[in-house]
Specification:
homodimer, 200 residues, mainly alpha, 9 helices, globular, DNA-binding
DNA sequence: TCTAGATGGTAGACAGTGTCAACCGTAGGG
DNA sequence: CCCTACGGTTGACACTGTCTACCATCTAGA
């Protein structure tokens, strides 16, 4: 029985790794099970990835890639402020539509960056999209001199977005007892708060 | 040689589990290594915890306990707004001083809540502290009817705080290339933004 | 054309893991 | 005085990541 040919195996391994994580959680990701599912020997993956961490890194890299594509596919706004809002929406939309991918990128203890160039590169690209959009705003210093186009507000915006996305898919919301509807209203409120803070 | 006696072993197990996580990461937490370190057989832990997940849950429960204590030890403010600010500072302070504990509470795939009552209880208590403080604010609806003391702004505040704490200890800051100083300024700016948004 | 090496697959072995089962000494209550 | 529960023990099992060794096939160079 012919197994997947040549290079195909490498991408098939990553596909299958993601599937396993989806089904049984990242903790349960097992090199041997991936091989088993693909009908291949337990050592075959080693020809393509030097260790289990490396295949995880490849999965995460693909998540960042998918994230970047999603951000780039957002509708463009007419003004910088408008476009920033669109990116914020796209950001949250991605986290909502692909919670696993989002968690893998942000809420998973990643193997050391230095050892995984591809993952690093993909994350850098994704973050550059965020950064460029944030810096395009001419953010004035609240209660200080206006026209201070520094990136300090980027942290504020990014924190609010990431915090929301992260809390929404944690158990926290359930534990404090916020209903679905309340969360939806809270989200919209957050966006209004952001707009008000940045667009005096 | 007499090993730790009786009940002491149970708490010693949790202590040692935390130490192991500290040294080698949560992934490497091993039932057998804990036992080995305590000079006890590899099955002894099973007399106190039915599974590896349960000892992890106990560690996390202790983190929440520690978190609650930290929040309660904050300096009290004179006004609700002031006290909320103090809690926000305490929140971030805890995340900064105990990054591992914070990560264990928020950024770790936890075993199903239902199976771990103690952990659930501790998290509920900690979150109730946050909730009570947030609800004590009489938050007006921005651009809507004033005096709308709902909890929708709680999500905004909590998101900003959690997002900041979470991003700060991830690799993200390093990847986008924000220096320590820029992060400090960004943090302060975030607080000012929060104040401005909530205290028109 | 022969041959050397790289590439991508195989099987086997080893240490380490979580967990199940069986055993065993001691303390305390009927 | 026995019995039971508790807190510990050892042994075994299946599973994991990873090391080593082997093998087939393609590809380049002589």
């Amino acid at each position: 029985m012919p197994q997947k040919k040549a290079d195909n195996l490498k991408t098939a391994l990553v596909d299958e790794a993601f599937a396993v994580i989806e089904e049984k959680g990242v903790e349960q990701l097992s090199f041997r099970e991936i091989a088993r599912r693909l009908g291949v020997s337990h050592q075959a993956p080693y020809k393509h990835f030097p260790s289990r961490d490396h295949i995880l890194a490849a999965v995460v890299a693909r998540c960042f890639e998918s994230f970047s594509e999603h951000l780039n596919a957002r509708p463009r706004g007419n003004t910088p402020a408008d476009d920033l809002r669109n990116m914020g929406l796209a950001y949250l939309d991605f986290a909502k539509e692909h919670p696993l991918k989002y968690r893998l990128m942000f809420n998973t203890p990643l193997p050391p960056l230095k050892d995984h160039a591809e993952m690093l590169a993909q994350s850098q690209y994704a973050f550059s999209l965020l950064r460029d959009r944030l810096l395009s705003m001419d953010l004035s210093d609240p209660g200080g001199s206006p026209r201070d186009p520094e990136k300090h507000d980027a942290i504020f915006i990014w924190s609010a977005l990431h915090g929301l996305a992260s809390l929404m898919q944690s158990d926290a919301m359930e534990i404090v007892g916020l209903s679905e509807e309340e969360r939806a209203i809270g989200t919209e409120r957050l966006f209004r708060r952001l707009s008000l803070a940045l667009d005096p």
